[in-house]
Amino acid sequence: MSTHISNQRPAPDRVLTDIADYALSYEIDSDLAFTTARYCLIDTLGCGLEALEYPACAKLLGPIVPGTIVPNGARVPGTSYQLDPVQAAFNIGAMIRWLDFNDTWLAAEWGHPSDNLGGILAVADWRPAGGRPLVMRDVLTAMIKAHEIQGCIALENSFNKVGLDHVVLVKVASTAVVCQLLGLSREQTINALSLAWVDGQSLRAYRHAPNTGSRKSWAAGDATSRAVRLALMARAGEMGYPSVLTAKMWGFYDVSFRGQEFKFQRPYGSYVMENVLFKISYPAEFHAQTAVEAAMKLRARLDQRGLAAEAIKRITIHTHEACLRIIDKKGPLSNPADRDHCVQYMVSIPLLFGRLTAADYEDAVALDPETGPRIDTLRAKIECVEEPQFTRDYHDPDKRSIANRLVVQLEDGALLEETVEYPIGHRRRREEGMPLLVKKFKTNLRRRFAEPQQQRILDVSLDPARFDAMPVNEYVDLYVI
Q1: What does the alpha-carbon distance between residue 384 and residue 330 come to, in Å, rounded to a whole number?
Q2: Pairing assessment for the beta strands 312-319 and 404-410 based on DSSP bridges
């Protein structure tokens, strides 16, 4: 008896076709989404400009071969680099993610959807000749769609629970919108998306003790640059793998997702950009943002009493489950990447010094013979406990709160308490937050540019009509050194 093995390829997985159809065909008609996206873009670029001040970031940037300049290549804002679009995407992506200060999306999976701007901006600036020239409105559209793809998959599907890093979603979302920017067909886009899923995906090992390290600061740059490479391969005619998710034994679901298929709470639209969370005041992992706000308020109350943090006997942080799982850390912290994912550290700094900046995670503060022991002593007094209602509200799509309550017991027995339910970057605090976001952007422009160049960038960036219509290459020109 002979067995016939069919070589007929299956129909593409529904997840792939839904993403491709949304990226290529969906019309965004939300004014709120476009307004939020413009704020998101300037905030994201500002975060990258600040990161350029840190040697650990700067050393990874530039061309693969030193001195290489790519004619008609993509520029890297805040630098003089002009690179191929894959390497430019890595540079931009690494910059904007380095200090953990760009936007955040919290759900079953966590992530930072503006990480996708690395691939989007590199391709939009470089985009090969032919077709309609791209303007900044096209960049905003791509950002809204990348946010939506990453965020909607994240709503109901936890990659961290199977040990995978959230940057898999950056790679998938960037791939989809880069295909649209490059003018790829539906079939080519599905092929590129399948290549993104069939890749080996990053483990979360570099985000957790005992292996916490700086890769978490460039992992998204790696993912968004990989997306550009895969889109270009599909554009050149590379084949895809239509059942990459559902194939028995060998597909993503069976190999990497414990046999479970993805669940979806809502269709793709503009929900994620409209509700995205901004890190405005503090470069802190987002589950700690409200804890840091509460700590700053408590510091002011200690000052009113004429007390220092040394008067504190014990601190209890009542928090949500995700905070406990990600950033509740005891014991030694080995590097800045470890410290900026420790809620005890992030609360101790404002209680001790009345501030929290990116520099506070560096060895110069943490290992200083005067400040270091004070931080470690206060950290040891902090315990985290889950508040079940906070966890429920965190997952409630109508609330999406990230609440923390700090209860401080002083040596004299007095109790001080502060609760912050929504951080200043939350949609419910947009009116309060956006002027501060612009202030943050202005501060970051001053780090890199002389006043006339700062003003040219601001004049365009804060004028929606002029911004939307400006060709992408002309806008990026404003950031070139």
Answers
A1: 10
A2: antiparallel
Say if residues 337 and 282 touch (Cβ distance below 8 Å): no
Cβ neighbours, 10 Å, residue 131: 10
- Evaluate the omega torsion of the peptide bond into residue 210 and state whether it is cis, within 30 degrees of 0: yes
CA distance 326 to 346: 13
**CA 391 to chain CA centroid, nearest Å:** 22
Which residues lie below 8 Å from residue 55, measured CB to CB, with a gap of 6+?
none
**Residue 208: DSSP 8-state:** S
The pLDDT assigned to 128 comes to 73
Q: Report the pLDDT value the prediction gives residue 400, as an integer from 0 to 100.
A: 87
Q: DSSP 3-state assignment of 407? A: strand
Beta strands 312-319 and 382-386 are parallel
Closest CA to 99 of 83, 114, 79, 82: 114
Q: Can you give the pLDDT at residue 9?
A: 85
Report how far residue 342's alpha carbon sits from residue 331's, in angstroms, rounded to the nearest whole number.
Answer: 10
Query: How far is 435 from 443, CA to CA, in rounded Å?
Result: 13
Core vs surface per residue 378-415: b (16+ CB within 10 A) or e: bbebbebebbeebbebbbeeeebbbbbbbbbbeeeeee
The owner of tokens 């790519």 is 70
CB contact at 8 A, 268 and 399: no
**Residues of the chain whose pLDDT is less than 70?**
1-7, 129-131
CB 63 within 8 A of CB 87: yes
